[in-house]
Amino acid sequence: MRGRYSAMTLALASLLPLASSHAADTKLVKAVSDHFELYTTDNDAAAKAALTHFETVRGYLLKSMRAADPFTAPVRIFGFKATAEYEFYVPKGGDLTSKAFSATAGDRVVIGMSSLKKDDYQFGVREYAALLLARLDPKMPYWLKLGLSELYSTLRPEEGTIAMGEEPMRSFHSEVSSDLDMQVMFALKGGISRNKGAEQFYGDNSQTGIANSKAGAKMANMEGTTTVDYPMVLWQLTHMLMFKKEYSPKFGALVGALNDQNTVSAIQQVFGQSLEGLKYDLMLYIQMPSHEVLHLKYQLDSPVKPQVSQLSPADSAPVLAELKTAK
User: Are 189 and 237 contained in the same domain?
Assistant: First the structure.
């Protein structure tokens, strides 16, 4: 067993020439809790605070979903202090303008974060929530998984409560066109990244799942010069379905119905609502100056007590090499 571990360590170490010179001298802080393993170039206090936040969010999500943890190994989080450090590890083809990414390294799930500042937790939590939902409900349509991930990203633990429903941070806001094609939006199966024009969402490519779609081409031509934050639209929609009194009592039924049928028919069956009617309500909801934030009673059964240690550059190097090869 020891020989196998040594061979793996040597294999990882052989990848180090791919790293920049600063990475070879990097010293990481390692912090471990019951369900997470965090490495950071920031300090001990930042590591402890971040792990407490993630453990609290994890506990709330699993309790609210009445689900067991689908991750068999601790989720590994990397939090960087400098943007240049973070950008070096963003997977090939990833969005360098984002503030977090998720990937896999063998059987391990990893999340990279550009910062461990409190205001930036939401970017890492968004990735975690998406990973969690994908494992708990593989049939969940992409639009709902993305909308819920946005909604859960801003969960804010307070003393004895957790706030849900706050608006995610964005670097810009734009008007949502009344020509928004919700049927196309519901058909998307992946490939959405933030801060991109509509052609990035509706273009005919393998990521959207609507190859050769005339509707997709139409939307791309119509809004190709407009920057629209589609994840924010889905946050608005999910918030409406969960919070608006006309929809919220049946939201659970909708999630169940989506396992067996497409979104349009599920909406009709559960809410007795047409797609046009849903869109009308959504456009009104988007125009509201603010949205409700719930403060729910919740706290972990026991305090989070991270175990923190300082890694040498030699001990940090194999861990960073594994992150660099994650996909």
Answer: yes
- CA 257, 262, 263, 268 dihedral sign is negative
**Cβ distance 208 to 201 under 8 Å?**
yes
- Asked whether residue 6 is domain-assigned, the answer is no
- Residues 117, 133: Cα–Cα separation, whole Å: 25
Residue 260 confidence (pLDDT) above 80? yes
User: Which of 220, 181, 186, 182 has its CA nearest to residue 201?
Assistant: 220
**What's the whole-model pTM score?**
0.83
Both 98 and 217 in one domain: the answer is no
What is the number of structural domains in the chain? 2
* Residue range(s) defining the domain that contains residue 46: 28-166+301-324
153 and 225 share one domain:
no
Are 159 and 33 contained in the same domain? yes
Residue-wise pLDDT tens digits, 220-234: 444 443 455 678 899
Backbone phi and psi for residue 298, each to the nearest 5 degrees, phi listed first? -170, 140
Are both 186 and 281 inside the same structural domain? Answer: yes
For the segment 133-184, what is each residue's pLDDT rounded down to a tens digit? 999 999 999 999 999 999 999 999 998 999 999 999 876 666 677 778 888 8
- Separation between Cα atoms, residue 277 and residue 266, nearest integer Å: 14
Bridge partners of residue 156, in order along the sequence: 163
CA distance to 166, 167, 169, 254, 298, per residue, from 92 (Å):
32, 30, 25, 36, 39
pLDDT in tens, 2-55: 454 444 444 444 444 444 445 567 899 999 999 999 999 999 999 999 999 999
CA angle at 159 for the pair 155 and 162, rounded to the nearest 5°: 25
